Amino acid sequence: MKIYDVIILGGGFVGPIISNKLIKKSNIIIEKSSNLGGNCRSKQLDNIIYDTGGPHIIFSKSDGILMDFKKALGQNFHELYRDAYIDLYGGIKFPYENGIAEADIEIRKKFIKSLINSRLNESISKKDFQNLGDFFEFNFGEMACKDYFFPYNEKIWNMSIKDLDYSWTKGRVQTLPIDKLVDNAFGDYSDGNKHQANFLYPKEGGIQALANSFKPSGEIVFNETCKTIKKNKDSNLWELQLESGEFISGKHLISTIPFIDVLNALSPVREDLVQMVREIKYNSLLTFMFAWEKTGSSVKIPLAIYNPDLSDDYHRLTSINYLSETMVPDNYEAVIIEKTIPMGFENSLDIEVEKDNAWNVVQKLIKQKLGEPKLYDSHFSEMAYVVNTSENTKIKELILGEIEKEGILCCGRLGRFEYINMDQAYDQASKLADQINEIIG
Ligand SMILES: Cc1cc2nc3c(=O)[nH]c(=O)nc-3n(C[C@H](O)[C@H](O)[C@H](O)COP(=O)(O)OP(=O)(O)OC[C@H]3O[C@@H](n4cnc5c(N)ncnc54)[C@H](O)[C@@H]3O)c2cc1C
């Protein structure tokens, strides 16, 4: 049986980065699917390239991480402005608190009055928020919540805003004082969260180009998962049996895969945790890519259009042409449209019905009648979204603690059940690789 220094479960975004940063350590990635990249994969279809796990843009508050991403991409990136809109009040700029300046004066007046009322509302003004709804209500007022923040977030998360935890908003959603919000409503604003106003994107190859730029330093096994995971107390080595029946062993075991897959393989079985892990809620994601021929009357589509309308499920449309012209032939327009799917509903999806619904929403959002799309594709990303309820957080902390007590090192969005972007995922992966480099020497 071959002994590796490190075994990495999952070859999504973080798995290959960890492997890339291990210095002279024998390592192997076990990946369930037939490619690396996980949610950061891109697919080519008839000269159109699209990000299958939803469009991924590169941004970070950390200059160091951005620099590492730029270095990894070499010349293959460009910087773009986040030209996004919300399909509300006839179309306003994203984020809402800036875009409100483009709305009718009566709407702006209502926004300011409701904002003042929220800030005066004793029950939520103590900043002791109970849930994501309280957070938004205090920060943006009742009207903004009713029109945009509640419906849009309920579409993304597939549950009531009052059941969602607000801790993930830290550093992601800017909280502004009331005078700044009033300035914003009259058009005197800077561009929202500075680190998100502009972003990077690969010129060629879609977001997968970023994932691919971190070449794993060891071996990779595709279309494999582990059947059993066991720690040999005598040798202190991890012994894994793969689904194919093959055995491998390693000094360190890193998991970037869902808790449930680790616990189902762990031997001896931790029945207590297996029961508990079933309570954890994830959401999956359905994406459609549609392409059609441009005509003389085609209007330019912005980077993204957010859709808070609860009468349809699709929440965001993104222009692939905007991300990079190299991903779409000159005479074509191509977009991605996304919808969240709650766990357990994937088998009841009728892709043909979904395709028609999604295509109707595309035409509604870009305000054009287009006939039939020339090309389309769909992709289902299982467990794409970690769901932030306080109940989930409690269970997650307990399970993560127990898995780590077993000696398994957890990393990444699925591995730690954290709602993190690529920059934070990269940071976790780099730190973990450094830690192992130091331990093994
Ligand atoms: C809709 C959406 C939009 C996003 N947009 C952005 C964005 O614009 N910018 C940004 O910075 N970040 C964005 N992100 C976040 C980004 O996708 C994640 O930070 C990143 O993918 C995390 O990488 P990971 O390796 O932890 O997880 P993943 O990329 O999900 O990789 C997990 C890997 O594990 C594999 N796997 C699963 N189970 C097993 C098993 N049992 N055995 C072996 N392998 C297994 C999977 O096949 C996958 O390859 C977005 C995420 C989503 C869902």
How is this structure best described in words?
The structure is a single chain. The chain has 441 residues and is an alpha/beta fold. It folds into three domains: 3-37 and 212-280 and 388-440, FAD/NAD(P)-binding domain, CATH 3.50.50; 96-190, no CATH class; 282-386, Polyamine Oxidase, Chain A, domain 2, CATH 3.90.660. It is 36% helix and 23% strand. It contains 16 helices and 19 strands. Strands 1, 2, 9, 10, 11, 12, 13 and 19 form an eight-stranded mixed β-sheet that branches. Strands 7-6-15-16-17-14-18 form a seven-stranded mixed β-sheet. Strand 3 and strand 4 (48-51) form a beta hairpin. Helix 4 (105-120) packs across helix 6 and helix 4 (105-120) packs antiparallel against helix 7. It is globular. The mean pLDDT is 93. It binds flavin-adenine dinucleotide (FAD).
- Global shape: globular
| Largest sheet data | 8 strands, mixed
State the name of the first-level CATH class of the largest domain.
Answer: Alpha Beta
Overall SS class: alpha/beta
- Specify the number of helices: 16
Our count of domains comes out at 3
Helicity level = 25-40%
Between the first and last Cα atoms, what is the distance in angstroms? 23 Å
Within CATH, the superfamily of the largest domain carries the name FAD/NAD(P)-binding domain
Query: Residue ranges: pLDDT <50 for 5 or more in a row?
Result: none
Question: What value does the Rg take, in angstroms?
Answer: 23 Å
CATH architecture call of the largest domain: 3-Layer(bba) Sandwich
The total of beta strands comes to: 19
| Percent of sequence in beta strands | 15-25%
Question: How much is the average pLDDT?
Answer: 93
Which small-molecule ligands are present, each listed once?
flavin-adenine dinucleotide
- Tell me the CATH topology of the largest domain: FAD/NAD(P)-binding domain
